[in-house]
Request: fold
Amino acid sequence: MALKVGLVGMKGIGATHAAAYKEDSLGELVAVCDAVTDRATGAAEKYGVRHYPSVRAMLESEPDIDIVDVTTGGIENGSWHCEPAMEALEAGKHVLVEKPLSSDVLEARAMVAKAREKNVYLGCNLNHYFTPPAERAEQYMKDGKIGELVYCLTKMGFQGGAPESYKAPGSFKIKDWPYFHLKAFLSHPLSVMRHFCGDVMQVQAFLNRPGFRRAAGDTMLTTASVHLRFANDTVGYLLSQRGDASYGLGGWWSVEVGGTHGTFCIENCIEKVSFWKAPDKRGPGLPGQYEPGASEAPEVTSSGTVDFGQTFARRIHAFLEDITNKVPPDQIRASGRDALAALEYTYAIIESYEQGGALVRPHPLPPLRTDPSVLLD
Reply:
């Protein structure tokens, strides 16, 4: 039986989520909720569902709802996530939240704790690794073709252009919030890096903004250079910028993971993945043995699409699938805990910057609580 879904927040991203549920056999969109009446009624008419002005009204009238999907925004794109999510969790509903989990890390910690207390599913729309290229990359790792991880290089942000015509943002949700880009966007690259390389133990960051932003009176820190050390001693580097320059490889998105046996690079999130096998020589490479231009061509696997929009339906389907299959809450894909990890790393980046590039250890994550029944075999 399809899981019944109530969707909160019908501006922009909410419509994307609604369309995904309407096409997925595992979910049934039954209600929408928005404090703006015209948006709520318009969405209800478009999708053939009932509409409500608040989460409370929706849950009181729709007690059979299984999932509450929160796509509200707010200051730094996340300040309106906690209240509706906590209300739904308190009512014993499963919850999917847009990224970031919250713009406030204390709220995010409370959300993860409440989901654990209620023993319900809490997921986040960390959709960037729900793609065929990412699945192929994971298979390379499982097959031992990457070997021991050595490094992870990530470039993820927005392409630049025409700084001469730039005007600073005027929205109260963005204006004069210097960490907007970090809190609103870094959940994506940090979650992808953690997905492939594991937990982050140390962070060092340098942040800036170019002259055209300064001249326009924009206080947002838009260029982030971040070094990371993972728990498995893999080293990582993240470059994220918000239209300050144009990227090269992969356009707006590329993730390269290198190991002792091989290296893969995903470009444009959903577009393709390339794999380079390490040279078939004994021992590590030596400068004197290097032959420029002698490297073999990579194995390239294309997905057949460059449509980033497909990642939303794929991620939402995974959430529905995990609940349907009764996966233990701590083991679902892109869980609330996973989203909290990315936010903890974001706060560590901010702390490092404020301390002049100091090395910072992120706040510890809540321990995993594994269902003992899965260990009996």
About this structure: The mean pLDDT is 94. Residues 129-304 form a domain with the Dihydrodipicolinate Reductase; domain 2 fold (CATH 3.30.360.10).
